[in-house]
């Protein structure tokens, strides 16, 4: 058990940035908008959060900045996807390319710099619980916030009137408009908030996980988060399992490398992404056999109030 506790704790830490991005994408896709720009959003969040923290010495300012940057970039995606009716896949890919290129260009002078960032804050009493305590309650504040965010989103999406409106606009924006609400405004709002959360996931990488800036430091976690949204069938609680599962795979490969195995390191580094492909393959097979995949009915479909009828 002593061998597994550090791995499980590392899985929580490694899965946290993926969890933030997955939760943000769940909100966005529940509104009917697909955003494949998570990787770019996370990179911009990591860069902007690190830059502000390095300048101010306060990592909370970095988190807030990352959130705002994610909202601003997602506003562009919302405009193209919702108002213009552009192809959402193309728009999302453009966000990824922009975030990757802009963070690389702007962050050149920041490479190698370090910050104090967030430190571990063990929760009294809870952190002393055998096994459970070290795994879940000996982390930094952003990990604890992610716990609360999951509970909040489950309650919000499935047990509140605004959550019902969110699910409705993802299923049928025509019905939402008929109710006297604005499907366009709802899609804008949740696309922006979802992008902000994804950006915070990137900020976690530079402010807590590594406490430094490195080009391309998210290393594909944005794409993994998109896979997890499907794996979780758009449910925040299931996203926790997926994020920690993928985080555990990544932590395991690092542990195997540290043990000095003769197994090729590049193959070990590929493990999280191989696992992602396998998950998507299983889901595709289930869908092909007619097994229900509970995706929002209007996901990725442009909507114009003037064209309804």
CATH class: Mainly Alpha
Give the number of domains: 1
Helicity range: 55-70%
What shape does the CA trace take? globular
Distance between the termini: 61 Å
Q: Count of DSSP E strands?
A: 0
Summed up, the helix count is 13
Structure classification = mainly alpha
The name of the CATH topology is: ABC transporter involved in vitamin B12 uptake, BtuC
Radius of gyration: 19 Å
Question: What CATH architecture would you give?
Answer: Orthogonal Bundle
Question: Residue ranges: pLDDT <50 for 5 or more in a row?
Answer: none
Helix and strand element order: HHHHHHHHHHHHH
Strand content: under 5%
Tell me about the biggest sheet? Answer: none
Average pLDDT over all residues:
88
Give me a quick take on this structure.
By secondary structure, the protein is mainly α. It contains 13 helices and no strands.
Primary descriptors:
309 residues; globular; mainly alpha; ABC transporter involved in vitamin B12 uptake, BtuC
């Amino acid at each position: 058990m002593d061998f597994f506790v550090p791995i499980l704790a590392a899985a929580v830490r490694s899965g946290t940035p993926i969890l933030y991005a997955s939760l943000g994408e769940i909100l966005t896709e529940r509104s009917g908008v697909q955003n494949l720009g998570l990787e770019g959003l996370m990179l911009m969040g990591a860069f902007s959060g690190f830059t502000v923290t390095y300048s101010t010495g306060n990592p909370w300012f970095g988190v807030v900045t990352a959130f705002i940057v994610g909202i601003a970039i997602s506003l562009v995606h919302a405009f193209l996807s919702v108002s213009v009716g552009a192809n959402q896949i193309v728009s999302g890919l453009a966000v990824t390319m922009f975030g990757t290129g802009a963070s690389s260009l702007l962050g050149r002078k920041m490479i190698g710099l370090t910050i104090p960032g967030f430190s571990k804050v063990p929760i009294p009493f809870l952190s002393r619980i055998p096994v459970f305590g070290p795994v879940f309650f000996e982390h930094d504040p952003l990990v604890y916030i992610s716990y609360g965010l999951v509970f909040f989103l489950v309650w919000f999406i499935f047990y509140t009137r605004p959550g019902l409106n969110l699910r409705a606009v993802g299923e049928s924006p025509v019905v939402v408009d008929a109710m006297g609400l604005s499907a366009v405004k709802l899609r804008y709002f949740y696309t922006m908030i979802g992008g902000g959360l994804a950006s915070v996931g990137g900020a976690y990488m530079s402010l807590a996980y590594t406490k430094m800036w490195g080009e391309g430091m998210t290393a594909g976690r944005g794409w993994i988060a998109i896979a997890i949204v499907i794996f979780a069938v758009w449910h925040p609680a299931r996203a926790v399992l997926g994020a920690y599962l993928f985080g555990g795979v990544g932590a395991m490969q690092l542990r195997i490398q540290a043990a000095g195995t003769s197994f090729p390191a590049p193959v070990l580094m590929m493990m999280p992404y191989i696992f992602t492909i396998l998950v998507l393959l299983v889901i595709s097979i289930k869908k092909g056999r007619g097994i229900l995949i509970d995706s929002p009915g209007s996901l990725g479909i442009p909507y114009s109030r003037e064209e309804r009828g």
